[in-house]
Amino acid sequence: MSKGFNSSFSSQLSSSTANQTDLTSQTASQNIALPASSAASAGPSTWQPPPHWNLDKSVSPYRTKIAARLNSRLPEEQEIIPQTAARVASRIAADHAAVLKADVDSPFSDYPDVVRRLLPYHVFQQPQDDLVNITHDKKGKGKAIDCDIKTDIAETKFAIECYRRKESLKKRFRNLGVQHGKRGSPDNQGYVLAQAVLEADRLDMTWLSNELRTARGELDKIEKDKRAVANVSRAATIQNAYAQYYRSYPYSYAQPYGATAPLPSGTISTFSIAPSVQTPVAAANTPYQAGAAIPVQLPVASLPALHALGIVPVPAANLPSDGQPPPAVLRGSSANGTMLSLEINVSLLQSAQMSGLAMVLNSLMSRSGVTANYASAAAPSSSSKTNSTHAGSLVP
Question: N or C: which end of the chain has fewer CB within 10 A?
Fold first, then answer.
């Protein structure tokens, strides 16, 4: 029995050993590289899957199932699907609004009111991704884009912009501090000093403007006086130029001024004048002769004006016996000493003296005209009073 068992066991062991030897030889033949001649004769060494295994990756079984499921639906079902999704999204949006703007002041009225006001809070128990996917309609390529990523990107950009602005402000304030430290005095003192300097400059400019305005006024006045003097001198020059072309005719009843008796030396003759208005008028009947003296009656108050013009009257007794006579000769005065009788030689005067003398005579004439008008207006009233008095004396 033992011999039979041993023989059978030996046969089985030999058969298994032979099988293992065959498998080892096959594995070695696959792993060990064969020579070029044997490899070329045996064909390619890469392993290829059998053709009945259907490993085509271009067609996905998952997509095939989805397409088959969509095609199996009815048109009514395909219309109901987006409507249902829209209603669910609207209800979730309403729940969000009710939660964000809850009525916390008024108490609950009944059980339906409790349900209506507390039911929207179930949104906090739903995952955020589910709510976003329901409320946001994603189609096509939008499914591959996450809204959270977009929000994070926008917030990151905003944070970066805020950081950049903060850094720029810090840099500006740092520069201000550096500039403040480089100055020789504090900024507040500098501002006060600058304001004081500007105020002083403003006052100086105001004073200079006033001075300039005053100087311009004086200049205009001087220019006006010069124009008036130039006009008077021009008129006198034209009159002298035309006078030499006219012949003077002697009058029958005119007495030459030189025929009067000479005055005693050292004395000034006096003459009486009427109490009427005095007018400084030259001899009207005496014809003008170039180089001849013109008699003029002037008040004593006009002597300072003549002295300012350089015309100094010389008494007739003090005239030099020979040589050029003076421009003005004093011939006499009135009884009360208010009027002077002068002889002025126009040919010996300069243009400025002639214009000044003309202005003095014009001013005296204007004042004499005003006084004469007042006297003529007062004369009729005085005569009427005299007549009434005389008539009253005649009445018995």
Answer: C
Domain-embedded: residue 336: yes
DSSP-based helix, strand, coil % in the chain, nearest 5:
65, 5, 30
**Boundary (domain end) residue, out of 118, 145, 172:** 145
**Whole-angstrom distance, CA of residue 292 vs CA of residue 320:** 17
Domain-located, residue 295: yes
Backbone angles phi, psi at 5, to 5 degrees: -65, -40
Beta strands 293-299 and 314-315 are unpaired
The pTM (predicted TM-score) of the whole model is 0.25
Q: What are the pLDDT digits (tens) for 326-383?
A: 878 887 888 777 888 888 887 778 888 888 888 888 888 887 765 555 555 555 444 5
Rg (CA), the chain: 70
What domain count does the chain have?
4
Rounded Cα distance, 299 and 280, in Å: 8
**Residue from 221, 246, 222, 231 nearest 351 by CA:** 231
- Sign for the CA dihedral angle at 259, 260, 261, 265 comes to negative
Clarify whether residues 150 and 216 are in a common domain. no
Instruction: Answer whether 89's CB lies under 8 Å from 135's CB.
Output: yes
Owning domain of residue 84: 64-145
Q: Is residue 10 part of a domain?
A: no
